[in-house]
Amino acid sequence: MPDSPLFTVAAIAVIVLAVAVVVGVGLKVMRSFRDLGTDAERATYNTLHAASRAGQHLRGGLQPAGAAKASKQLRTLLGCEALAITDTGSVLAWDGAAEELRPSLMRLAAEVLATGRTAVIPAAKESAHGDAAYSAVIAPIRAGSRVVGAVAAFAPNAGAGLVRATGEVADWIAAQLELAELESSRTLLMEAEVRALRAQISPHFIYNSLNAIASFINTDPARARELVVEFADFTRYSFRRHGDFTTLAEELRCIDRYLLLERARFGERVQVSLRIAPEVLSTVIPFLSLQPLVENAVRHGLEAKEGPGHITICANDSGAFAEVTIEDDGVGMDPEHLRSVLAGHSDGDHVGLRNVDARLRQVYGDEHGLVIETALGEGTLITMRVPKSQPGHDA
C-alpha cells in the first residue's frame, strides 16, 4: 500500500541518496574550479599570475625597487636558481642563490649590453662552500634600437630551454618598459595641456581683471579690496603646482571666483544659475577641466552678444557617473567649425574646449569626451561625464 511505513521509509531513503549524490557532484565541481582542474591549467594560471604581479612592479620603469620585486616573480617563471636584472651601468636586482657572482655580473654582461646578443656563459666558478657551479644565460633588454639592460638567469646547466625562456623574459620586460614610457608620455602630455590652459588664462583674463579692479579703486575701495582677494585666490588655484586632479567642489569654487571677477567687468550682462547635487561634490575631475568651459561661455558666447546673457551650470548624480552641463544662451558657433576646433585644426581658437576634450579622452577613454550642442545664434550646451569612482586618481 502507498501509505505503508515501508513505502515511506523507502521514499526517504531514495531522497537522502539523491541529495547525497547532488552534494557530492557539487563539491567535486566546486573543488575542480578551486583547484583549476588539470596540471596544465594550474601551470597556466601560475605563469599568468606571476607575470601579472611582476608587470605591476615594472610600470615605473627600470628602477631598483621595482626590479627587486619583479625579479622574485620572474625567477619563479624561469625555474632557475638565481635571477638578476641590470641596467647599462649596475645590477638593479638579484634574487636567489650565487650572490658571490654578483660583483662580476656587469663584466660578464658587458658584451651583451654592447652587442644586443644573448650570451651563454658556462660554469666557471664554485662557491666558497664547495657548492655546484652555475652557468649563466644573459639576455638583452631592448627599448627600440637601444639596449637598456639585461636579464641574467643562473642554473647548474644552461640548456636550450632556459636560453629561449630567458630571452622571452627579457622581451617581456622590454614590453613593460614601453608601457611605462607611454604612461610617462601621457602624463607629460596632460601636464603640457594644463600649462596651455594656464597660459590661456594668463594674458586675457588677468589683464581684464586688473583693469576691472583698478576701475573700483577710487569709486568703491571696499569692492576693489574684495576683488583683489578673489583674484589672488583664483590665480593661486589656477597656477598651483601639485596634482593633475581636483574635486568638483574645488573647481566650482574656482569658477565662482572667476565669475565674480567677470561680473565686475560686465555687470548685469552676465547672469548665472547653479544647480548642484551635493552627492557629486566630492567627485574627482581633471584639474582645470570646468573653468575653461565656463570661460569659453563668457568669452565666445556672451561677450559678443548684445544685452544680458545667461549661463547655467548643473552637476547631477547619474548612477556610476557625475554629469556636469554648462549652458549659455550666447551667439553659439558653427558645428563644422566646432569639429575643426576639436580636431586641432584651428589654432588659437577655443583652445580651452580642445584641451579639456583631449584630456578627458586620455584619462577616461574616447566615450568620455565633451558632448557639445551648438548652432549659430542658438547658444551652446556642453556636457561632461566622469566616473564617480576613480581609485587611481587623487585630488
From TrEMBL:
The keyword Transmembrane helix applies. Residues 290-390 form the Histidine kinase domain. It comes from the Bacteria. The chain crosses the membrane at residues 6-27. One of its GO terms (cellular component) is membrane. Keywords: Kinase, Membrane, Transferase, Transmembrane, Transmembrane helix. One of its GO terms (molecular function) is phosphorelay sensor kinase activity. InterPro entries: Bact_2-comp_sensor_kinase, HATPase_C_sf, HATPase_dom, His_kinase_dom, Sig_transdc_His_kin_internal. The keyword Transferase applies. Pfam families: HATPase_c (PF02518), His_kinase (PF06580). PANTHER family: SENSOR HISTIDINE KINASE YPDA. This is Histidine kinase.
